[in-house]
Each structure stands twice: as C-alpha cells, then as structure tokens.
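Re-run requested by the PI after the first attempt was lost when the workstation crashed. Everything re-entered from the original request form. Ligand of interest: 3,4-dihydroxyphenylalanine.
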Amino acid sequence: MSFVEEIEPLKEGALTELKAASDLAALEQVRVRFLGSHGKFTALMKQLGSLPKEEKPVAGRLVNQVKVELEAALADRKSELELKASLPKEPTDFTLPGRRRPLGKTHPLTQVTEDIVRIFRRIGFVVADGPEIENEWYCFDALNTPADHPARDTQDTFYLNAGQASSLPRSAPQSSQLQPAGKMPPRLLRTHTSSVQIRVMEKQQPPVRIIAPGRVYRRDNADATHNPTFQQIEGLYVDRGVTVGDLKGTVEHVFKELLGDEVKLRFRPHYFSYTEPSYEIDFSSSLTRRMGKDWLELAGCGMVHPQVFENVGYDPEIWSGWAFGFGIERIAMIRYGINDIRLFYENDVRFLRQF
Ligand code: DAH
C-alpha cells in the first residue's frame, strides 16, 4: 500500500474510535493512540521525509489536511463529553414543584407612607424633601419658634458638634432680624419635618402644595410609644383665600381614604408657634375602639402664621395657607393594630412579614 493510500483508512479508524469514546479518559487514550508522539498518525507523518521528492508535495498537503480534520473532530467530541460530564447523573423529575424564592416585602411604614403620598398626589400635591441634618433656622427660628422653646433644649434635641464647620448652604434671608447675618446657625438633627416648609417656600413662590415625608429625631428614651428616631409627613398648602375649611376637608378626605369611611375627625384647639389658629386632630373609628379608646390624637395642624410668611418673603396680606404634620408610626400602629413602636425598628422578619 502506498503512503497516500494509508492515510484514508487511518483517518476513518481514528474517527470511529473518537465517536466510540464514551468519556473524557477514553477520548484521551484515542488521542494518544493516533496523535500522541508515538501515535499511528504521527508515525505516518514521520515517513514523509523518506518519500521520493516528486510525491512529497501531494502527500504533505494531504497529511496536513487530515491532521487538521482529526484535531477538529477531537475538540468537538471533547466538548460533547464535557457537557455530558457536567449534567446531573440522576434523571431529572420534571414533575417536581419548582423552588420558590422568598419574596421581600415593603416595610409597613413604607406602605403607609406610599399610601398617603398616593392619596395626596391625586389631589395635586407634590413630594418635597429636605435634609435630616438641619440648622436652627429651618427647624425653629423661621418657624417662629422662640429661643426659649423647650424643643430647642439640648435635653430634647440632638445638636451637632458646634466646632465642626457646617457644609449646609445657608439660604435664609439675610435681612431677617431672627438670624444675624454671616453667623452660621447651630446644626442639629431635625426634630420635625416642618423645616421642609421653610426650605420649599424660600425657593418657590406661591401657590404651594407639598407633602414631605421623612425621618425625624428627638432625645426620647425608647418605650412602647417613643423612639429616638421616627417618621413624619408634613403638608403645606399656600394660595389666596385658603381657609380652615380647606384644611378640614383635605385632612378628612385623606384619612377616610387611608383608614376607611367610618373615620370621624375632631379638631381640638392647640398651640404651635408656626400656625394661628392651631389644632390637634383626634380621630375615632372601630380601630381606636379596638385599642380601647374613643379618640386618638393623630396630627398637629393650623393656618400658617403670618410671621412665617414674612420670614420666607411671602406677603401675609396676599397669601394664606394651612400646614399639618403627623407621625407615620402612629398611623401604622392604628391601621395594623400594633402596640409597640419599637417593633418597627427591630427588623425581625417574623414581625415584618405579617403586613
Ligand atoms: N411639627 C409638629 C410636631 O412635630 C407637627 C405640626 C403641627 C406640623 C402643626 C405642622 C403644623 O405643620 O402646622 O409635632
């Protein structure tokens, strides 16, 4: 048999054995047998050199072609066998139920906040935001809260180290007698979201229709109804000819949407330095009776004090408005029948999963 005639049967033999190799080890043996340094095909190639000169080009080309072909077939079979090795050994039971991934949920406080925001959006309010690290101007002075107010006491409020330079932009009006020009007001963690009222009014001309949800801080020891940090929603509406009737109507609409149609509200005269007149809102429903109470205090509110308008450069002869603020935890506790505020912050999934 001539050299060239030997090539074809050798190739066929190699291909047959490649296909027959049932695992990677068997395949490696086939490779060594044909293409290894002592392999049959390698031996054939070594004979090339001893061929007569005129046969060499044709034989050389043929041998190389077959070598490339065999190497490709080897690589194909190898990846087939690798895939086979990576598959499960046991047969798959396609009738088994799938594995469910545990789904997360929004926190009950987030649910309540989102519901309230949605209700206000429907009646034309937009969400406003302000920093949790505030200064006394936004938290107190601009809200007409005098220097001797108990909320400003270091026992009640978290003040920040006075030695640290403030990075807060101070956009408060320079002309205000409440705030000496050029002096940086002390920084603190905001005690209420009412500071956002000022931030919004300083930047924007009336009409204003905003709500501002956010975290607030007070030096309270944690107990069933207090926590050093909690969340509030602030509301502010400024336009021409706004009345207490608008305030009552709006608040009633929102709480009926949120807690049900049978909700009754009661406005009780109160005092806040940034509103005049001021009220506390109590509410009554089957939910309060479930907690053993006829009325539960829900929110503070009132008509924006003319001095507050002056402080932000609004003319109180032209503009009037109302504002309110309430604690979100309070609402969530009533809505879901929760009796301890600390549960919201313990992050125990057994608690959180229930809502
Ligand atoms: N800032 C008050 C608080 O933290 C709540 C409040 C009362 C907000 C009256 C208002 C308001 O906007 O007009 O208790």
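Saved to the shared folder this time. Residues 192, 194, 234, 272, 274-275, 300-302, 323-325 surround 3,4-dihydroxyphenylalanine (CB under 6 Å).
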